[in-house]
HTH hxlR-type domain-containing protein (Chondromyces crocatus), 218 residues
Amino acid sequence: MARRAEGKSGCSVESALAVIGGRWKGVVLYWLSTGTLRFGELRRLLPSCTQRMLTLQLRELEQDGLVKRTVYAEVPPRVEYELTPFGRSLVPILLDLKAWGERYRRRLP
Amino acid sequence: MARRAEGKSGCSVESALAVIGGRWKGVVLYWLSTGTLRFGELRRLLPSCTQRMLTLQLRELEQDGLVKRTVYAEVPPRVEYELTPFGRSLVPILLDLKAWGERYRRRLP
DNA sequence: CGGTATCCAGCGCGATACTG
DNA sequence: CAGTATCGCGCTGGATACCG
């Protein structure tokens, strides 16, 4: 986690990218911006992300205070993920990025 | 370049992050948003980025159409980098990210 | 000054298997 | 269902040296 570790040095753009720059974090955050989701639902929404990676990325987002994890003591177990208020503060930027990404893709050969 | 290569698949957030997610790209773009810069100037602005990495990241940004590279046939050689119009279209988002990054850092222990 | 070339470490990430 | 555990590969990026 070299990238995430150095959160305090460098400029703030780096800090932000360190938080959302993980392989799947952008998409995870995007889907969570549409509402609370269970682990299995996220898995289905990110078919090419392995279970292990999904877990890891969610844990990091949780540590960074963007995502809240709620475990329900049921059988079978249920775990729900949702954005924290701080996480939600990133959503507008994420949507801008998404829009920009669409324009970028339209330029491709 | 696994990340950059798959620009066409996945959601657009991924595409955008694939373009600006490189280790130094965010900062390079940020500095270039303040005006045209020579290679050596960028080096001084990113002291912890090696010359090799700076070159690589600039080349990728150039390929992605965000940065224009101009070589002046002088001695000693002079090379200037500036944002393309398309690159400039990313600047507002970058500034939002920067502002968000500052808030993020203020939350840190 | 503004680059290549070369070599190489580390870790990001995937694949697979097992568990409460 | 929602995870951990373990193993290993490949790419990212660092160090260093050389070039027009």
Residues 25-107 of chain A form a domain with the Arc Repressor Mutant, subunit A fold (CATH 1.10.10.10). Residues 20 and 26 of chain A are 6 Å apart (CA to CA). Chain A has a mean pLDDT of 90.
